[in-house]
Amino acid sequence: MAILKAFKGLRPPKEIARDLASRPYDVLNSEEARKEAYGNKYSLLHIIKPEIDLPEDIDLYAPEVYKKAKENFELFQKNGWLVPDDDEYLYIYAQTMNNKTQYGLVGCAAVEDYMNNRIKKHELTRKAKEEDRMKHVRITNANMEPVFFTYPAIPKIDSIVADWVKNHEPIYDFIAVDGFGHHFWVVDDKKTIELLINLFADLPVTYVADGHHRTAAAALVGNEKRMNNPNHKGDEEYNYCLAVHFPDNQLTIIDYNRVVTDLNGMTKQEFINNLKVHFDIVEKGENIYKPDRLHTFGMYIDKKWYSLTAKPGTYNDSDPIGVLDVTILSNLVFDQMLNIKDLRTSERIDFVGGIRGLEELERRVDSGEMAAAFALYPVSMQQLINIADTNNIMPPKTTWFEPKLRSGLVVHLLDKI
């Protein structure tokens, strides 16, 4: 059974919520974070990317960076920019993009569920990024940012959430600089909280949709605290971590595309001729070509678009990994033809989230920075769930969820308030 726990959150006053809420720490590099937080003393980036308040040449993993995170977090609380709620609540966090709104249930997930694989993963985590966020959780003693979970939709939960939204005004309701709407309600009725928790317990598992490193860091620090506490009882706040749970039928995964720096010594025509072994190729001209079905790709090279359709026998639709277009492209093009063996470490490949549009692929190739670009058809939620359920791991940079959660609308402390 899946555990959902109410908690006493730290939240910003309504009048500064829009300024305080920030994009997740891993969406921005340090330079971008400095620009985004410039002139905004309320931005949570001062806590989740505290290097922006230190010299630009500082090592991002230096002790001073984590110390600054703690100082800034304490300052936010002292200044009344993050204030504790009166009691343990659940919350509803909704996001609107392109006139579509998705409604998530905010509560704590159990560290034990993560350790026992009742919270399913579909991506590998990198130790350096994991350790960075673990240090951040340790020094702030808090989950500063929620992670993005999904679960098989339960109509009764949907109905309760819809009724609450209909009958209560949101505590926060704003359009962020990204153009997306963010709406937030406090569920403070004990009977409603109990009902939602009990309904959630009917779920055998939940799934990490986005935020694998933050999830791992929160769970591992919680488990670390449990192991180091001789008086551990099981009800301590460190046994839980902050998550927003969205029903799977409300979510949209968008494309996650690839660009490569070179053709491994081949000319354009040699490359295209080699592609014909595994793909049916059609030249599409100068207008952007966006794939509209599984196993079909868009390729942009030398000012022209092409469609590539994988030939039967080059993929395995009965295998959760083999069916993925990223697997086809990685095996047949990047590995076999371009000799790019490790997508995580190679400097010859980069990844472009579909939110940037396929124009970004054209720009990077036309600039000379990249030799070719590949547009992919998005992974489905069912594919993601199939992979997680079979304990498989997706290739890197496979899923891109949008809109991203705003961090700072509620914070979870690892000690009782």
Walk me through the structure.
The protein is 31% helix and 23% strand. It is an alpha+beta fold and 417 residues long. The strands form five sheets. It has an eight-stranded mixed sheet. The chain is globular, with a radius of gyration of 23 Å. The mean pLDDT is 95.
Structure in a nutshell:
31% of the residues lie in helices and 23% in strands. The protein has 417 residues and is α+β, with helices and mostly antiparallel strands.
In percent, how helical is the residue content?
25-40%
Q: Biggest sheet: strands side by side, in what order?
A: 5-10-7-11-4-3-9-8
Instruction: Quickly give the structural class.
Output: alpha+beta
Please, what is the average pLDDT? Answer: 95
Low-confidence stretches: none
- Main sheet properties: 8 strands, mixed
Principal-axes geometry comes out as globular
Distance between the termini: 27 Å
Radius of gyration: 23 Å
The proportion of residues in beta strands is 15-25%
Counted by DSSP, the helix tally is 13
> What's the β-strand tally?
20
